[in-house]
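User: Let's play a game. I give you a shape written as tokens, and you guess the letters that built it. Ready? Here's round one.
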């Protein structure tokens, strides 16, 4: 079971793990002859207890990595900062890390606004309904997907009025046993909060997690250059709440490998969109992204029979980055 750890010493190790992976990524991929020097740095850093010095230098190190991205008008899977980092042994442990484009996922907080009682689902809510139906093993029906999205919307929207009687607000949650609680009525800060939301079983959360992110606002757009097949399948025509067939999105994945989409026009001119938009059907594209501003960093360090987890959400601002939030734990 994952539990929070605020102990200063463990926190130091986790921060160190983050810094280490950035150092290794920058040095090991750019200057081969410096590789062994970076390993030495890793070992000395890991052995250090006080991490305040390291913590101060973290944003600079991440910026060094992002500096390799010359073109921030377009971000794609070919960008060096998005390349996988292989797991590596460090000082009696094994360190692995992932740098993930958060803008390649659906922002769960985007379902908070609109779609209240008597209103139709918003664009963001429609996309999440479609995403929930892309997991073959869960086999969620459209109706079940709608219930999940309504419950999530009500859990995080600021009022305490239910969208309909199958959704849930504080009145429902307060009556739960053994311990009732209130609807959050504010934007999510962590995916782990989903376990408090009606209909969100551990299975649903587990399958959904790789495809969603928690941004500190309600914007709905995602980067079509980095989105997974499941996320691209949420781009069906407005009235169709089922996901696109996987074969419909492979053309996008092939095209962007050759040449990333640069703007709405380049994406809208693809045969898939042309086919979908024939007749009166429309695909909402005005919120879609072609570059990314949010980065998820996930680091895990297996060290002396324990697994230390560290994750962070960072926001790019030109060549700078700022830490939006970080979490850590020990498994
Ligand atoms: Ca509500
Ligand atoms: Ca609410």
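Assistant: Ready! My guess for every position:
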């Amino acid at each position: 079971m994952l539990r929070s750890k605020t102990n200063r010493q463990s926190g130091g190790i986790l921060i160190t793990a983050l810094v280490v992976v950035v150092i290794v990524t920058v040095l090991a991929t750019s200057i081969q002859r410096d590789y062994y020097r970076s390993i030495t740095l890793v070992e000395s850093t890991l052995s250090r207890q006080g991490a305040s010095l390291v913590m101060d230098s973290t944003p600079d190190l991440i910026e060094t990595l992002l500096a390799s991205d010359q073109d921030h008008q377009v971000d794609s899977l070919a960008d060096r900062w998005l390349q996988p980092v292989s797991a590596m042994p460090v000082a009696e442990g094994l360190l692995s890390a992932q740098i993930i484009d958060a803008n390649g996922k659906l922002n769960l907080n985007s379902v908070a606004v609109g779609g209240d009682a008597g209103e139709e689902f918003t664009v963001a809510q429609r996309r999440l309904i479609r995403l929930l139906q892309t997991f073959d093993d869960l086999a969620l029906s459209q109706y079940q997907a709608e219930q999940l999205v309504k419950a999530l919307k009500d859990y995080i929207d600021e009022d305490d009025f239910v969208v309909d009687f199958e959704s849930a607000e504080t009145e429902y949650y307060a009556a739960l046993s053994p311990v009732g609680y209130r609807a959050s009525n504010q934007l999510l800060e962590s995916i782990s909060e989903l376990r408090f939301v009606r209909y969100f079983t551990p299975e649903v959360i587990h399958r959904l997690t790789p495809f969603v992110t928690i941004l500190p606002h309600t914007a709905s757009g995602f980067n079509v250059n980095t989105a997974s097949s499941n996320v691209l399948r949420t781009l069906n025509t407005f009235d169709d709440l089922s996901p696109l067939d996987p074969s419909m999105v492979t053309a996008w994945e092939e095209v962007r490998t050759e040449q990333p989409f640069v703007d709405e026009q380049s994406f809208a001119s693809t045969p898939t969109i042309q086919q979908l938009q024939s007749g009166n059907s429309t695909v909402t594209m005005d919120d879609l992204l072609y570059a990314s501003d949010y980065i998820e960093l996930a680091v895990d360090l297996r060290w002396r029979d324990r697994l230390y987890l560290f994750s962070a959400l960072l926001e790019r601002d030109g060549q700078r980055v700022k830490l939006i939030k970080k979490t850590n734990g020990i498994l």
